[in-house]
């Protein structure tokens, strides 16, 4: 083969490799992310310091190109998902990001409420309306509203929660109009939409959105949670533990590096999340001693069981603890002996 031909083949291969990096397939790839210490992220005014640390765990996710798809195909702890398994129908990347960030905001609010109430401190809310969390395809709001829209008024009237919003709309019939005063990217506008039946078997009608409360939690001492661009609700449990620990003189970390995952409801219930196997790997790389995993009341395919299997596969010495509620995690930590060096 001549040098000229060899050069052309090499150049062509380089062009193809470069092109593959910018050609996206209809898939997402997820892989182990990081375990991030929470004390620099969460600050309670006058809060107590800790010897150990609580850490949230993440999963890295991105659209698949040819290269990343092939790598994930042959990697044990990378997963491939079709676009429709991640994004909802007609949902753009921006809509998806907004939905994830609002879920994170709700997670932070729940975490603050649970931690402060457990610490015996009062919790109050200032309601400002609702956000659009999701738009239902084929319903009147489809194409008119987007995830992240802030709804301030309904037919000129203010309302204090998503339940009030739903109650008002439910009092209307299919074919009637409602006018929403919204704010999108700081720009106000009015949108008038007709109500439509959800299906032929029900008389219930609506505009086709999933609303979520826009509420500001009011607590004393003040707490700041700087989650930056981390989205989704899966850090709820670990947020709650960190906030509670800063509120209390006794350090419940007892010197351990403690990772974990799980959603948190306002009543302290811990819910399952995706990517538990990848989060175990992230926590192990960060040298965590303990990992709290959602137990799902002992269900056969629970996050806890998947976490135990992954921990065994990678040979980590990290202990996996099953939890169904915030109280479960606290009770475990209260019985834990101080870590010795």
UniProtKB/TrEMBL annotation:
One GO MF term attached to the UniProt entry: ATP binding
One annotated GO biological process: proteolysis
UniProt-listed Enzyme Commission number(s): 3.4.21.53
Highest taxon of source: Bacteria
Active site: 234, 279
Enzyme class, spelled out: hydrolase
Segments forming domain PDZ: 100-186
InterPro entries: Lon_proteolytic, Lon_Prtase, PDZ, PDZ_sf, Ribosomal_Su5_D2-typ_SF, Ribsml_uS5_D2-typ_fold_subgr
Lon proteolytic domain mapped to chain residues: 226-336
Stored PROSITE patterns: LON_PROTEOLYTIC, PDZ
A Pfam family reported for this protein in Swiss-Prot or TrEMBL: Lon_C
Catalytic activity: Hydrolysis of proteins in presence of ATP
Coiled-coil ranges per UniProt: none
SUPFAM superfamilies: PDZ domain-like, Ribosomal protein S5 domain 2-like
Keywords: Hydrolase, Protease, Serine protease
PANTHER family: ATP DEPENDENT LON PROTEASE FAMILY MEMBER (PTHR10046)
Family indicated by similarity: Belongs to the peptidase S16 family.
Protein name per its UniProtKB record: endopeptidase La
Taxonomic source organism: Mesobacillus zeae
Origin organism lineage: Bacteria, Bacillati, Bacillota, Bacilli, Bacillales
